[in-house]
Amino acid sequence: MPTSVACKGFFITPREYGKTRDVANKWHRWMITEGGPMARPDKEAAVAELVELFRSSGAVVLTEYRGLSVAQITQLRRALAGNAQYTVAKNTLAKIAAKEAGLDFLAENLNGPTAIAFVNGEVVDAAKALRDFAKENPALVLKAGAMEGAALSADDVKKLADLESREVLLAKTAGVLKAGLSKAAFLFAAPASKAVRTIDALREKQEKAA
């Protein structure tokens, strides 16, 4: 076991690693964002994977996670499960991938400890999960994003979170359709009822005349 580890700007010994959560978080962040030097084939593969994620996602949201613990990041990933993949990648590689995917405008926000939520499910639900988590954990900062090729600001993401979910909209739509069908059925039935009453009245009149 090595006696120490050098990590871009700080030096960790096994004893120091266990002293504070802050040091542990620095180690975690270095491992998942830097991870040491990458061979060229690995970089190309990583960029290709990110390009595919950018292109196939309904939306992407950039967040700063400085100060979040490993447990908190895991909790956020669970909250996003089914709607988004929360990924930490090297900013240099993410910038290249964003440019290749036609999202050059994201580059200015790909700095510092950034994690990307690639939304592959309901955009509104993913935005709600991120907003709610940020409220409970101020260390998570919504930075920017993109949807259908257009830039999103942090406020835009929050506005998306304020929208009603797909399930609620579908339920409301179903309710409107049901009410509409009932109204249509009434309108169709009304003339028929009137016609029946008219025929009955004529028959009754004829019977009295006879």
Give a written overview of the molecule.
The chain has 8 helices and 7 strands. The chain is an alpha+beta fold. The protein has 3 domains: 1-37, no CATH class; 40-163, 2-Layer Sandwich (Alpha-Beta Plaits), CATH 3.30.70; 164-210. The chain has a 5-stranded antiparallel beta sheet with strand order 4-5-3-6-7. It has a two-stranded antiparallel sheet with strand order 1-2. A hairpin with a 2-residue loop joins strand 1 (5-7) and strand 2 (10-12). Helix 3 (40-56) packs across helix 5. The longest helix is centred in the last third of the chain and has 44 residues, at 166-209. Mean pLDDT is 76; it is low at 1-21 and 30-35. Forms part of the ribosomal stalk, playing a central role in the interaction of the ribosome with GTP-bound translation factors. InterPro entries: Ribosomal_uL10 (IPR001790), Ribosomal_uL10-like_sf (IPR043141), Ribosomal_uL10_bac (IPR022973), Ribosomal_uL10_bac_type (IPR047865), Ribosomal_uL10_CS_bac (IPR002363). Belongs to the universal ribosomal protein uL10 family.
